[in-house]
Amino acid sequence: MKTIHDTFGGISSRADGLCALRPAMPQGFMDATMLARVAEVVRDFGLPGIRATGAQRVELYGIAPEVVDAVARRIGDLDGACPFMLTLCLGRVQCDKGLQDTRAMAARLEAVLKERTGMGVRPKFGVSGCPRGCGQSYVRDVGLLGDAKGWTLLFGGSAGRKARPGQTVAKGLDADAVLSCTGRILDFFSANVKKGERAAGFVERVGMDAVRHAAGIATP
Ligand code: SF4
Q1: In the chain, which ranges are continuous DSSP H helix?
Q2: Is 101 close to ligand 1, i.e. is its CB under 6 Å away?
Q3: Residue-wise pLDDT tens for the chain (220 aa)?
Q4: From CA 11, how far away is CA 81, in angstroms rounded?
């Protein structure tokens, strides 16, 4: 059964004792129906407004704990919610520099991720339609960069205190290869990661050759 955490990608209590909810925004988009519903909920519950998060989501904040369930019910159980943080750029369809379709890739990636909601780790993903990396691909645990030949898959990026770009797992992958490699890497990561460790620290500890091997990619 889908939980409130799955639907909203987290429910957080703040220092002020109030809560925040982040409704699903598949591939970072929200249609008119959902926008209207969010506006109604903000108005009807007297919330201060919404906040744009760094992960391309809308956050309803300032929710008293006693009404958070009611707010969640009004927002609704949104089929298609992906509990992983996945950011993407406009890609080929909407950016004149784009070389690959980021929305199509993100939709397929979300399907792979939903099969792994119980894996115990929540890596962050970035998908960009060209090597400029506007979808934060270089600093996510798993990053994808489109080019004329397909996709480059990165692993181990971090935007945190020890910021660093992810390292290349493989280049020139088609969409099917991206999904199979990513799935194998996530299975390897979740089976071997230490508590509190993110992908960047994991790569430091086990090495990129081990990650490539798990992905089924020959070491260059
Ligand atoms: S990464 Fe490339 S395709 Fe994506 S928004 Fe930036 S310039 Fe456009």
Answers
A1: 4-8, 32-44, 68-75, 102-114, 175-192, 199-206, 208-215
A2: no
A3: 344 444 445 556 666 788 888 887 888 888 898 899 999 999 999 999 999 888 888 889 999 989 988 998 888 754 445 668 899 999 999 999 999 999 999 999 988 888 888 888 889 999 999 999 999 999 999 999 999 999 999 999 999 889 999 999 999 999 999 999 999 999 999 999 999 899 999 999 999 999 999 999 876 6
A4: 14
Distance 146 CA to ligand 1 centre (A): 9
Pocket test residue of 87, 88, 94, 97 for ligand 1, highest count of atoms within 8 A of CB: 97
Which numbered atom of ligand 1 lies nearest the CA of 96? 8
- Is-above-0.90 flag for pTM? no
**Domains of the chain, earliest start first:** 4-75 (3.90.480.10), 85-215 (3.30.413.10)
Cα(92) to ligand 1 centroid in Å equals: 8
- 3-class state of residue 105 by DSSP: helix
